[in-house]
Design brief:
Distance between the termini of chain B: 92 Å
Largest sheet of chain A: none
Oligomer: heterodimer
Strand content of chain B: 15-25%
Number of strands of chain A: 0
Helix content of chain B: 40-55%
Strand content of chain A: under 5%
Number of helices of chain B: 5
Shape of chain B: elongated
Largest interface: A-B, 22 and 19 residues
Largest sheet of chain B: 6 strands, mixed
Number of helices of chain A: 7
Chain lengths: ~170, ~180
Amino acid sequence: MTHHRPSTLPRAALILFIVGIGLASVVYSPASPARAQEPTPSDDQVNLVAKQLYCPVCENVPLDVCPTQACVQWRQTIREKLTAGWSEQEIKNYFVEQYGARVLAAPPARGLSLLVYLLPPLAFVVGAYIVYRAVRTWRRVARPVASPPPTAEDDYTRRIEEELRRRE
Amino acid sequence: MSDTPAPPPPAPPARNFGRLLLWGGLAALLALMGFGLYRTQAGPVSSGPAPDFTLTTFDGGTIRLADLKGQVVVVNFWASWCKPCEEEAATLEAGWQKYRDQGVSFLGVDYVDTEPEARAYLERFGITYPNGPDLGTRISQAFRIRGVPETYFIDRQGMLVRVKIGPIEMNELQSILDPLVKP
């Protein structure tokens, strides 16, 4: 009696074929579901934070539009922090800690920076009061109040009139 | 007897106080603006006692300038995004290797930079002297730097003796350090 062992070659080839197909589908898949779900922040999301920051090297240019290498690096840092799940405020706090409060587009309302918030409304109120006073004065000048005729009680006028009469 | 007209009545005290407050406020505001302008235009600190600072290095250590009194200190401000800084990077490292045994300390202060790029820069140029970020830009503000690179030379007494704005070359580095390390 001869025992015929089943050939293992076709089975191995089949397994290899299936594994190969599986690997190819993973490697060449244009966007696997896992990648598509990665929370990569968009440029708009990065710029939303960046526009609230100023790099000290490029004064007066908001970070979202600043073209220098330093600012490109800063935007990349924002992207990394957003990817890591940091909130907008946490990112701003990080930048303040690293580079100082002057990186903020809107400085914190304390210390000397408080003047930035107080002075404009104060100047507006003072200016409005000055204009109000000026308009009132101009109106008075334009419409002189008729002075009442001198009365006998007016001692000074009476004395002048007496003096004039005496001279006549 | 001659009668003169009575002088106009004095302004009420409240109005005087208001005027005083207004002019005082304006004067204070102008003084503040003047001080700010003066500080902006003053330029780098170039003489007198060097501003003290504490540098937290990329390795996690801390170095206080005051603790280095008795040594000559070279403080270099740089950044990874600064192209002229690359020109002097090798020179500074060579200077550190030459003078480190003569009582000279080199400190690198990384100005407005991001850490990964800064670390890559240090590795690329093989810089081995202590370097750290200028946290909160406090050090650069104390020295009133105008940009990078800038290099400050501090003598053994802690006095600023020289400022180099822009990349430094070896012969210039030597001409500044040689007299300072002489006993």
